[in-house]
Design goal:
Blueprint: E1 2-6, E2 10-14, E3 23-28, E4 43-45, E5 67-68, E6 71-72, H1 73-81, E7 86-89, E8 113-115, E9 121-123, H2 129-139, E10 142-147, H3 154-165, H4 172-179, E11 190-193, H5 206-218, E12 230-237, H6 241-250, E13 258-265, H7 280-307, E14 314-322, H8 341-356, E15 361-366, E16 377-380, E17 383-386, H9 388-396, E18 403-404, E19 407-408, E20 413-416, E21 419-422, E22 424-430, E23 436-442, E24 449-454, E25 462-468, E26 488-489, E27 493-496, E28 499-504, E29 508-515
Parallel strand pairs: 3-24, 4-7, 4-15, 7-10, 10-11, 11-12, 12-13, 13-14, 14-15
Antiparallel strand pairs: 1-2, 3-19, 5-6, 8-9, 16-17, 18-22, 20-21, 22-23, 23-29, 24-28, 25-26, 25-29, 27-28
Helix pairs in contact: 3-4, 5-6, 6-7, 7-8, 8-9
Bound molecules: alpha-L-arabinofuranose (AHR).
């Protein structure tokens, strides 16, 4: 049996043979300097890709689909329910081809371009800076603008910052904003300095990108960054540790507030497998990829710690999620996929990993919000459905800005064809009102696991809960049956002598709340 320490005291054991469900004893280990779980870990991503923006978020003011300034009301209501803390835009790969000045001013004067990364479709720029930032106000969310470095200039970058953030009358860019109908600046805090610079963002070497980053970041703000911008360096792909090392070493830390990481759960880029009709083996492989996030974060953080022991620079996992073959008959460039209980497992387990690394992981963005990859919302003309991933995000929203409560436990294993993964994942937090939240995931495709939570130290007297599960891993919501998978109240807990006991069914997510 091999065991290792996950993040703050979460101990998971591998290699034990598991023949029957075993009791998992979870101990709460309060810690005086435990970090806050940044609400931004529950962030989202909207790219000009397929039907994410057009049809997903934005239908235009003349649409018969109920909208506010062209943005779908049903989507706004659903995302507000999630309390989405931030939204990253306009890409992705699209960002490094995007020239923001194409998307301002009268729509009839805006030039069209071809979206070369995503299906070579016409992009008419009818959704631009004003439409996006006003939509963020409608959603009550913080914008995260991902700026063009690959084919842009520092001038274009700094002009965008002035256009969105500087007071009217201070220079030509804010004046232009005023001419276009918006006097007050939006005050955008989060700025991505390019995207995937190692790939679609310019196929750069890390040394070259680090120099370019220094140049772009210099002109974003003043000497002391008195605007409080969060400048985000384009980060590594999965296990490219050298990328993180070179950036951390070569970028002066007064020029950088965060470094990104992208990791998708993909079986094989050439043969990703279907989003619904997958086999148990394909399920296991995806979970292997999703749980790799733990090791990836540990190793990228270890490099960051070497150069930044005070954790000034945050890690933003600003693209993550499951990536499968597109739905049959849909445009391969649109990345439209269904979303099943497998995705609920990916979301639940990944969010637990982020929570448990809250001291360094300060933001994460699920790819993507609507109609693309592991979406929380799917739309079809006027219809909309909420996916199992949406429900997990809603259940976990209780952790936003709460204080991490470290947990210690040994997970039983989920074994498939002689290979093992930890079956149970968990994280916990205590919110401002003193309520304690536990998110528990059992990824085992067959076995129930009994969990005993030792909460004696917390003086709780009541517990309530919600569960998300279904009859089959492949189950999903459809436009005909949008409520097949919905969270339900979970009352099957026994609470005695400071211990909460419950059975967690196969492939299910449970969130418990304990109060005094
Ligand atoms: O999310 C889809 C694409 O995946 C993004 O555009 C890119 O950054 C990543 O490769």
């Amino acid at each position: 049996m091999r065991s290792y320490l996950i993040g703050v005291l979460l101990v998971v054991c591998f290699g034990a043979t598991s023949v029957a469900a075993q009791k998992v004893a979870i101990r709460v280990a309060p810690q005086t300097d435990a970090p806050q779980i940044s609400r931004h870990i529950y962030g989202h991503f909207a790219e000009h890709l397929g039907r994410c923006i057009y049809g997903g978020f934005y239908v235009g003011e003349d649409s018969e689909i109920p909208n506010t300034a062209g943005v779908r009301n049903d989507v706004v209501t659903a995302l507000k329910e999630l309390q989405i803390p931030n939204l990253r835009w306009p890409g992705g790969c699209f960002a490094d081809t995007y020239h923001w000045k194409d998307g301002i001013g009268p729509k009839e004067d805006r030039p069209s371009i071809l979206n070369i990364w995503w299906g070579n479709v016409k992009e008419d720029n009818s959704f631009g800076t004003h439409e996006f930032l006003n939509m963020c106000e409608l959603l009550g969310t913080e914008p995260y603008l991902s700026a063009n470095v690959g084919s842009g200039t520092p001038q274009e970058f700094t002009d965008w910052i002035k256009y969105t953030n500087h007071p009217a009358g201070s220079s030509p860019m804010p004046d232009l904003r005023e001419e276009n109908g918006r006097e007050e600046p939006w005050k955008v805090k989060f700025w991505g300095v390019g995207n995937e610079a190692w790939g679609c963002g310019g196929n750069m070497r890390p040394e070259y990108y680090a120099d370019l980053y220094r140049r772009f970041a210099t002109f974003a703000t003043d000497w002391n960054n008195s605007d409080g911008l969060v400048r985000i360096a384009s980060g590594a792909s999965s296990s490219d540790y050298n990328w993180t090392e070179v950036l951390m070493k070569n970028i002066p830390h007064q020029l950088i507030e965060a470094i990104a990481l992208h990791h998708y759960s993909v079986i094989d880029w050439g043969n990703k497998g279907p989003s619904t009709e997958f086999s148990t083996e394909q399920y296991f492989r995806i979970m292997q990829q999703a749980l790799r996030m733990e090791d990836l974060i540990q190793r990228h953080v270890a490099i960051m710690d070497k150069y930044d022991e005070n954790k000034k620079v945050a890690l933003f996992v600003d693209e993550w999620g499951g990536w499968y073959d597109v739905e049959p008959g849909t445009n391969p460039g649109f990345l439209y996929q269904q979303n099943t209980m497998r995705d609920a497992m990916v979301a639940g387990a990944t969010l637990n990993i982020f929570n448990n690394h809250a001291d360094r992981v300060k933001m994460a963005n699920l790819a993507q919000a609507v109609n693309v990859l592991q979406a929380v919302i799917l739309t079809e003309e006027e219809k909309m459905l909420l996916t199992p991933t949406y429900h997990v995000m809603r259940m976990y929203s209780v952790h936003q800005d709460a204080t991490l409560l470290p947990l210690a436990f040994e997970s039983p294993v989920y074994t498939f064809n002689g290979e093992s993964l930890p079956a149970v994942s968990a994280s916990a937090s205590v919110d401002e009102e003193g309520a304690v939240h536990f998110s528990l995931v059992n990824i085992d495709a067959e076995k129930v696991h009994t969990i005993e939570l030792d909460v004696a130290a917390l003086n709780l007297s009541k517990v309530s809960g919600e569960i998300l599960t279904s009859a089959a891993l492949q189950d999903h919501n459809t436009f005909e049956h949008p409520d097949k998978i919905m969270p339900k109240a979970f009352t099957k807990t026994t609470f005695k002598a400071g211990k909460i006991q419950l059975e967690v069914p196969p492939f299910s997510v449970i969130v418990l709340t304990g109060t005094k």
